[in-house]
């Protein structure tokens, strides 16, 4: 069986056994590592625990996609389903968590309503070309820190 892969993201058994759900989960674990390396330079404890479980050398010991979503790492991401309220960092409105996005970055948690985030992204993508080039096309967080 032929398998295509990105070097460094391939599970140890991929070439010998072909692709599987377990090899996909291994690749996802390596993707989490790469994202943290690029964005933050270090990994938080919950992420490291998750990565260790996703990249186990033994395929049968790796987390499934369903188990991954129930891991402690994803709890804050999945909280949007709850009826919790947050204050938007831009509009200062108090809204349900499901009506926006909560960021948990190094600056601390903050919430942006869908409308405020949409308006902010629109203003950033229409910003002066020199500014967009300087930021390499990235949109930075609107919360100062």
Would you kindly provide a written description of the structure presented here, covering whatever features stand out?
The chain has 145 residues and is α+β, with helices and mostly antiparallel strands. Helix content is 41%, strand content 12%. It contains seven helices and four strands; from the N terminus they run H-H-H-H-H-E-E-E-E-H-H. The chain has helices at residues 14-17, 21-39, 45-54, 65-69, 75-78, 114-125, 129-134; strands at residues 85-87, 94-96, 100-105, 108-113. The chain has a two-stranded antiparallel sheet with strand order 1-2. A two-stranded antiparallel sheet has the order 3-4. A hairpin with a 6-residue loop joins strand 1 (85-87) and strand 2 (94-96). Helix 2 packs antiparallel against helix 3. The chain starts with 13 loop residues before the first helix and ends in an 11-residue tail after the last helix. The mean pLDDT is 86.
């Amino acid at each position: 069986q032929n398998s295509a892969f990105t070097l460094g993201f391939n599970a140890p058994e991929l070439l010998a056994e072909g692709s599987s759900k377990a090899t996909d989960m291994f690749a996802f674990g390596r993707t989490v590592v790469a994202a943290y390396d690029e964005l933050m330079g270090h990994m938080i404890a919950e992420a490291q625990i998750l990565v260790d479980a996703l990249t186990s050398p033994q395929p049968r010991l790796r987390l499934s996609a369903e188990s991954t979503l129930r891991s402690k790492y994803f709890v804050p991401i999945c909280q949007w389903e709850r009826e919790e309220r947050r204050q938007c960092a831009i509009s200062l409105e108090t809204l349900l968590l499901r009506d926006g996005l909560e960021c948990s970055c190094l600056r601390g948690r903050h919430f942006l309503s869908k409308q405020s985030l949409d308006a902010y992204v629109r203003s950033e993508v229409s910003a002066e070309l020199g500014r967009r080039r300087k930021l390499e096309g990235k949109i930075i967080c609107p919360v100062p820190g």
